TrEMBL record:
GO terms for molecular function: serine-type endopeptidase activity. Belongs to the peptidase S1 family. Keywords: Disulfide bond, Hydrolase, Protease, Serine protease, Signal. Residues 36-276 form the Peptidase S1 domain. InterPro entries: Peptidase_S1, Peptidase_S1_PA, Peptidase_S1_PA_chymotrypsin, Peptidase_S1A, Trypsin_dom, TRYPSIN_HIS, TRYPSIN_SER. GO terms for biological process: proteolysis. SUPFAM superfamilies: Trypsin-like serine proteases. This is Serine protease. The keyword Signal applies. The keyword Signal applies. It comes from Streptomyces venezuelae. It comes from the Bacteria.
Length: 276
């Protein structure tokens, strides 16, 4: 089934109850190792632009309330997936989540390092289509500024990072099994950007979804290969190639399956909205 990759919980569920909630989010069938499937632990100091979205009221305190990822693109701006801010994830409008925070500078969610910054506003891409996940992007405005070295550059039209065969990396604190076993420490996996025709063949428009090249990019271990992918809870996290942000974790089918590469929101066509 096609599914967005947010961590979907109804209310402030405990992690023990999370496994029961996963089928409602069209859970991925995961490989055994890693929140980011096939990845490895990384330090936030090496990728300071990666952030976690948090609400302890909604998701409990065990993992600092983490439910999605994001990426810093300006002193007070964070990008995430639009579906992370939807009612299915938050249980209501985003403005009703009074403790919504962006966690920066923290590798391990149970640690006290870094900062938790309040969100003063959110803008969802007006062209976002929940039915297809096209344009799956939102901007969060922070209450405080972050240092310049936390900001990642954005890919523009024609960026070489979108070329098939490009090596990229995806980051997140997501599910380690597909059944609600979430990582506590940040992970990253090396993936390969795939040709649009490979992505269209994987998602031709059946019940699993349609790949739309104008607004999406897909990546995996390689054409016809599995084992490296994002998973539940990684939504909104960055896909980076050549030191630039080329995509955000959006949707897919399963975790790390050879026939089902991960699908990401393509950043270049949305540059005007991100900087507006």
């Amino acid at each position: 089934m096609r599914r967005p990759l947010a961590r979907v919980l109804a209310g402030a569920l405990t992690l023990a109850a999370a496994a029961a909630a996963i089928p409602l989010a069209q859970a991925r069938q995961a490989a055994p190792d890693g929140g980011v499937i096939g990845g490895k632990p990384v330090k936030i100091a090496d990728s300071p632009w990666v952030v976690a979205l948090s609400s302890r009221d909604r998701f409990g305190g065990t993992r600092a309330g983490q439910f999605c990822g994001g990426v810093i693109i300006g002193p007070t701006k964070v990008l995430t997936a639009a579906h992370c801010l939807g009612r299915q994830v938050l249980g209501g409008p985003v403005e009703s989540v009074r403790d919504l925070r962006v966690i920066i500078g923290r590798t391990e969610l149970r640690a006290a390092e870094g900062r938790e910054i309040a969100v003063r506003g959110a803008r969802v891409n007006p062209a976002y289509d929940p039915a297809t996940n096209a344009g799956d992007l939102a901007v969060l405005e922070l209450n405080e500024s972050v240092p310049a070295h936390y900001v990642v550059p954005l890919a523009g039209p024609g960026d070489p990072g979108y070329a098939a065969g490009t090596e990229a990396a995806v980051y997140g604190w997501g599910d380690t099994s597909g059944f609600g076993d979430y990582a506590y420490a940040l992970r990253a996996a090396g993936v390969t950007v795939l040709a649009d025709e490979v992505c269209r063949a994987a998602y031709p428009g059946d019940a699993d979804g349609r790949y739309l090249a104008e607004s999406m990019v897909c990546a995996g271990a390689g054409a016809g290969e599995g084992g490296k992918d994002a998973c539940q809870g990684d939504s909104g996290g960055p896909l980076v190639a050549g030191g630039r942000l080329i995509g955000l974790v959006s949707w897919g089918r399963g975790c790390g399956r050879a026939d089902s590469p991960g699908v990401y929101t393509k950043i270049a066509p949305l540059a005007g909205f991100t900087t507006g």
